[in-house]
Specification:
heterodimer, A: alpha+beta, 2 domains, 7-stranded antiparallel β-sheet, 4-stranded antiparallel β-sheet, 4 helices, elongated, B: mainly alpha, Cytochrome Bc1 Complex, Chain C, 11 helices
Chain lengths: 224, 325
């Protein structure tokens, strides 16, 4: 093998011949993978870690509000004597702070009526947010119904659906009496039997299997 | 395709140290007596002005040549701009470009609106009123953006309808259809997020309804609503969020996908309208294919891969034309 041609090419060629040839190719003694592979995995791993270090906090930053529950907010809307059991009184209060009038919402408030199976001393606060897609409903005194201007949803006196597209009765707000003042607190939703459940967005069914298909969100307050 | 020859850069535009040295023997004037006819009828000498004019005429080409020597883009550009289109190509084929133009209008007017708009719940409405009432041409630019949004949505649907009814979504263009559908969704996202930005009663309630429609999706819907609103109720951060999605996130994605969409259009070529029949049977025997290739007249236009190539390009054994140079 060591013929004249190799000698002409010089010492370099000779040293290659002397070097131990790895077998299988690329693997040196005692190694379980090639060096090329080690560096490939290492550089991809480190690059992945670096990318995750940037992307995960950024995504978390955008997604975090899903898991954040604000402070419970109670607002006085008038003395107890202002409210009767026969009809509703419209009150406006702030539901979301920091955006001025846009954060205000309307509730229809009355005293509980024993005729309707409610306690006499309780205060009922019905949200004006339609359970269809969130338009503002209005209590129409003459009909004794809540009527939505957007898509024709109609609710009866207690907020149960009479007709139209709404999927559940009108939401309610927690209420309490402090120093003779009626205070309105967090929102909650009700099932078709008026059982309190955690607040749902409009358009979402409540009760039965729907509690799993439209799971309660961590950003809402527990039902009373 | 003939090779594009790169124009020579004249010495006038090259700084002296970088000039190519002359060939041996080209410098200086030849010795000896001038021919007789030159003496009696000397050639007209160019005046300085004429020389300048000559250089000036060549200057744009030379400048382009200088750029192209470094970019090497002329081959790609001629291939793209002079690509063949099938017989029967008509005005319906301009709907995609029209959509692109609508997007460019939205991008340009959007940039200028952003110079005056304040994405804050308390100032957004006032800033839009300021644009409309006080900024010169503000109402026009705002109007272009507002109505242009509708135009873009209409055009994208017409473009989609053209693609569907001409069967242009079929093999090998399925991926381009998928990209187009993603672009449609992104365009709708733009329309939805942009609607809230004036923060008036209409946009406020429309966004509430839109977010609640999103929320009706089972299982993930409620969380999607919270993500869009950045909380359980529509608030100050919702506007900032919609603004960021409208201004930064989606436009970047749209630009990237438009690039991919147009790359595939150029790469795959366009289809002929369905009423243009193929000149030859779609499935030809290998022999006839070879013949077609051999006489340089292989037409399998009107369908599939070869829709874009009508004349004079060789066709290989699988019915695929040579790629455009």
């Amino acid at each position: 093998m060591a013929d004249d041609a190799n000698k002409v090419n010089g010492a370099e060629e000779a040293s290659v011949k002397e070097r131990v040839k790895p077998d299988p190719p690329g693997y040196f003694e005692g190694e379980s993978m090639t060096r090329r592979r080690v560096f490939t995995i290492a550089s991809q791993g480190i690059g992945g870690l670096a990318a995750a270090g940037i992307i995960l906090p950024a995504v978390g930053f955008a997604v975090a509000p899903i898991f954040h529950r604000g402070k419970e907010r109670w607002e006085a809307v008038g003395p107890v004597g202002d409210f009767v059991k026969e009809t509703y009184r419209q009150v406006v209060f702030t539901e979301t702070e920091g955006i001025g009038d846009a954060g205000k919402t309307t509730a229809y408030v009355r005293k509980g009526s024993t005729d309707l199976g409610e306690k006499e001393d309780e205060i009922i606060a019905v949200s004006n947010r339609c359970a269809h897609l969130g338009c503002p409903v209005r209590f129409v005194e003459a009909a004794g119904n809540f009527i939505c201007p957007c898509h024709g949803g109609v609710y009866d006196f207690v907020g149960k659906v009479l007709g139209g597209p709404p999927v559940r009765p009108l939401d309610r707000f927690q209420t309490r009496i402090r120093q003779g003042q009626v205070e309105i607190g967090p929102r909650y939703s009700v099932t078709s039997q008026l059982e309190a459940v955690r607040a749902r967005d409009p358009g979402e069914f409540t009760g039965g299997i729907w509690e799993y298909l439209y799971p309660p969100r961590p950003s809402t307050f527990p039902a009373p | 395709m003939p090779k594009a020859r790169l124009p020579k850069i004249p010495d006038a535009v090259v700084p002296p140290p970088l000039r190519k040295p002359g060939k041996p023997g080209s410098g200086g004037t030849p010795k000896g007596q001038a021919p007789a006819d030159l003496k009696t009828a000397p050639p007209e000498r160019q005046s300085a002005g004429e020389k300048l004019l000559e250089v000036g005429k060549e200057a744009p080409i030379d400048a382009l040549g200088w750029v192209d020597q470094r970019l090497a883009a002329s081959g790609f550009l001629t291939g793209m701009l002079y690509r063949k289109v099938p017989k029967g190509t008509n005005w319906f084929y301009t709907l995609g470009s029209a959509t692109l133009f609508a997007f460019i209008v939205q991008a340009v007017t959007g940039v200028f609106l952003a110079m005056f708009y304040v994405p804050s719940a308390t100032q957004a409405y006032a800033s839009i009123a300021h644009i409309n009432n006080e900024v010169p041409f503000g109402q026009l630019v705002h109007g272009m953006h507002k109505w242009g949004a509708s135009v873009m949505v209409i055009l994208i649907f017409l473009h989609m309808g053209r693609t569907f009814f001409f069967g242009a979504y079929k093999y090998p263009r399925e991926l381009n259809w998928v990209i187009g559908v993603v672009l449609l969704i992104l365009t709708m996202t733009m329309a939805f997020t942009g609607y809230l930005l004036p923060f008036d009663q209409r946009s406020f309630w429309a966004s509430i309804v839109g977010i609640n429609i999103n929320g009706t999706g089972p299982v993930v819907g409620p969380y999607l609503s919270d993500f869009l609103r950045a909380g359980p109720e529509l608030g100050a951060t919702t506007l900032a969020r919609f603004y960021a999605i409208h201004m930064l996130l989606v436009p970047g994605a749209i630009i990237a996908l438009i690039g991919a969409h147009m790359y595939l259009v150029v790469k795959l070529g366009t289809t002929a309208p369905p009423w243009v029949k193929a000149d030859r049977p779609k499935i030809a025997s290998p022999v006839s294919h070879l013949e077609a290739g051999a006489n340089g007249n292989g037409r399998v236009n009107g369908s599939g891969v070869n829709g874009a190539r009508t004349h004079g390009e060789p066709v290989d054994g699988e019915g695929n034309g040579a790629p455009p140079a």
